[in-house]
Amino acid sequence: MSDNSPPQAVDAEQDVSGRVLALGTADLGTFFRPRTLAVIGASDAPDRPNAAVYRRLRAWAGRVGARVHPVNAGRDLVDGEPCHRSVAGVPEPIDVAAVLVGDPVKVIEELAAVGARFAVVFASGFAELDGDGRHAQERMAAVAAGGPRVLGPNTNLNAFETFREDLDGPAIALISQSGHQGRPVFQAQELGIRVSHWAPTGNEADLEFADFLRYFADLPEVGAVAGYVEGFKDGRTLMLAADHAARRGLPVVLVKVGRTRDGASMAASHTGKLTGSDAVTSAVLRQYGVTRVDGLDELLDTAQLLARAKPPVSTGVCVYAISGGTGAHMADLCAAAGLPLPALSERTQEALHQWIPGYLRVSNPVDNGGHPVGDWRGRRILEALVDDPAVGVLICPITGAFPPMSDTLARDLADIAERTDKPVCVVWGSPVGTEAAYRDILLGSRRLAVFRTFGNCVGAVRAYFDHHEFRARYRSPFGDVPRHPSPAAAEARRSLAPGPASEHTAKRLLRAYGIRTPREELVDGAEAAVRAAAKIGFPVVLKGCGPGVEHKSELGLVHLDLRGEAQVRDAYRHVTAHDGVDAALVCEQVRGGVETVVGLARDEVFGPTVMVGLGGVFVEVFRDMAFRVPPFDAEEAGRMVAGLRGFPLLTGTRGRPAADVDALVDVIMKVQRMGLELDGVLTELDINPLAVLPAGAVALDALAVTTPERTRESRSEESDDER
């Protein structure tokens, strides 16, 4: 392959469902530092916006050392420089082409013919408009598959901004699907926060969020990635990129819009993406250690702390304030966020009382009464606090400017941050923000983490501890993904008919995967029901059974605690009189345990998704459920269960025995395998209820829906294409 050939994705191993297990790489180093830049549609006409864009691109090229080639079929010169009539006339390989014309697809085809590596498409009017625009974007993506990698369409000049080179320390790399929404993070450079890159991905016809995340994770200067996302192009590529970042310990902080129906609608109209289920999105981000925040101010504040702070030596937080009220306020917020405020050691407290009056509290929070910060005592207090072994993070809220005391405190905080590896967080509460103590001293420090609100500070510290806890335990799940289907999968693909399955068929599928069900027998007559009951042993349960029969309890199709032959006959006649019921299930009656729900569904973005929840009102009323997207390990399934609000019911309450949580986790793992192996066949699975007993778990009812034949064939073709 020649040096000017377009970068190609690597051939990747696939899991049992045909999905890739590794993300291909794009040579994005060439994109950000090209040797050559061609500007198609370059102009110097004073009434054309292209003139200003061309000059900005030319200035950027000068900063990164790229040679510029203007291209315009109607010009010989642009700003006095020779202009090429077509991309074919550019005399050297094109690393990056900026496409400023209204119909970029034809230009991308021409760039593909000359082996250009990257194209940036600024034009809008594509998938964000649906219809013809979506089709045009699909054509663009098809060309990009064999030609230059495409950034956009509907992108902007953010990748070509001027980044300050006088700032040191770990940097934030920024990825945004909306240029305007990324602006506050970029402008953080004016606060002394280093920003190294900005990738404005736009509609993501080709290059996407995941490509840039993977690239940034390998850059030693990047300390954190901050992202603003409206929708993910591909759930699997996101997971692979997030896994890559997690294995390298890189913090990722994200604003993901679409939590509400209105937000999802606006996101779709803006970028032309599907936002998917927000609960599933949040679950995936948790699986891979991505910190999700809601506001752009939180995005910046959290990313800057995670980028700069070294790993914690302790999980304790110390709050140091000049006012008891301020300390109490911050302590409440810390407690609400689950941040521990451990008591300082007796030695530390004795030392503090040398400089702080004895009537003030110094156990944690520490109240100095105000005056000690104005003289030599302030520095000694700070030294004692950061030296305490229980302190992992020091938080000092300064609610207002009160020179000269606040100036002295700010200087002492900046000095102490230089001598400790523990994060020192300062909240400057003054709404003015022009004070010298804030602008010159606090923001002038490369070691302090400076915030403007209590809430953002506490949220960032919580994210800091969570990130390092996640980092310590994370193990990539992709190494253990099954590559070959089990015998159960092969049998299920042969035997499952398209559409809703009966409970009997659904349970047969569960048993094939090793999930326990009650002893039961399918019968088609009253006397057969009586014989089955006698064989199983009274009392029994009798249910109406038929393809697609749902909500049996509400329809009166479930008869419990049947203790005699007459009751069985009556129950059989009752359930078979209902439309759609063509047989009955006679089942062993299982008593006790905690009712749970385990399910499988196909998310439009992430594919097969596993759900668990507590049964009854916990799922139906309180929506107490958790999601995970395969692949995940048993430890992650355990965290899934432990995160339920109703989890204490599984541990034993009011004298009830504890349920076998390990058995529940085992069922979750088997359902996950089912989802991986039967993707494209099994659309939905609902085990409800799954009784979790003191020993074991039993699926008392199950619903399965398989893919219609036409859709199944289509997905099979897609899988073949991936292969």
Q: Output the radius of gyration.
A: 31 Å
Task: Show unreliable segments.
Answer: 1-11, 265-275, 710-723
Structural class: alpha/beta
Q: Would you tell me the overall average pLDDT?
A: 91
Helical residue percent? 25-40%
Gap between N and C termini, in Å? 22 Å
**Count the strands?**
28
Major beta sheet summary:
7 strands, antiparallel
Q: What's the helix count?
A: 25
Strand content: 15-25%
Shape: flat
Describe the secondary structure blueprint for this structure.
Layout: H1 28-32, E1 36-40, H2 49-64, E2 67-71, E3 77-78, E4 81-82, E5 96-99, H3 104-113, E6 118-121, H4 132-146, E7 149-151, E8 171-176, H5 179-186, E9 195-200, H6 209-217, E10 222-229, H7 235-247, E11 252-256, H8 261-271, H9 278-287, E12 291-293, H10 296-308, E13 317-321, H11 324-336, H12 346-352, E14 366-367, H13 376-387, E15 393-398, H14 405-418, E16 424-428, H15 436-442, E17 449-451, H16 454-473, H17 487-495, E18 499-500, H18 503-512, E19 520-523, H19 526-536, E20 540-545, E21 558-562, H20 565-576, E22 583-588, E23 594-603, E24 607-614, H21 617-620, E25 625-628, H22 634-642, H23 648-651, H24 661-677, E26 682-692, E27 697-699, E28 702-706, H25 709-722
Parallel strand pairs: 1-2, 1-5, 5-6, 6-7, 8-9, 8-10, 10-11, 11-12, 13-14, 13-15, 15-16, 16-17
Antiparallel strand pairs: 3-4, 18-28, 19-22, 20-21, 20-22, 23-24, 23-26, 24-25, 26-27, 26-28
Helix pairs in contact: 3-4, 5-10, 6-7, 10-16, 13-14, 14-15, 19-20, 22-24
